[in-house]
Amino acid sequence: xxxAGRSIDIKSISCVxxxxxxxxxxxxxxxxxxxxxxxxxxxxxxxxxxxxxxxxKVIQSVTCRSRSVVVESMANSxxxxxxxxxKKLLFQGRLCRLQFDSMETICLWSAxxxxxxxxxxxxxxxxxxxxxxxxxxx
Length: 138
Known about the structure:
Layout (H helix, E strand, L loop, with lengths): L14 H16 L11 H19 L7 H7 L5 H17 L6 H10 L9 H16 L1
Helix pairs in contact: 4-6
């Protein structure tokens, strides 16, 4: 039997291990390539947020009526919107560090710069920078 056919019983592992697995496997696979998502609507992001909060509540064995902000903070997790914005900022930073010695690089930069939000409020930037600091610890 392959790994894909196996499952982990959520009750047999600790909450910290389950959250680590969720953040390192599920979130990374679900948001693969999100740096280049240009046609994602707020409705799509809200649907991802609902699933994200639901699974965090299931992992922590709390009721569905628990406040999502509390559940995210207990799991030391961030919202999907923040994770996507941070990944876009990191991608833009990598683009900024590219050498502009070829036409392909210039075309890539001009195409991708339209996908990155240009303006963030101070609160969003502080939140993203805090996530960036946590992201680099891993």
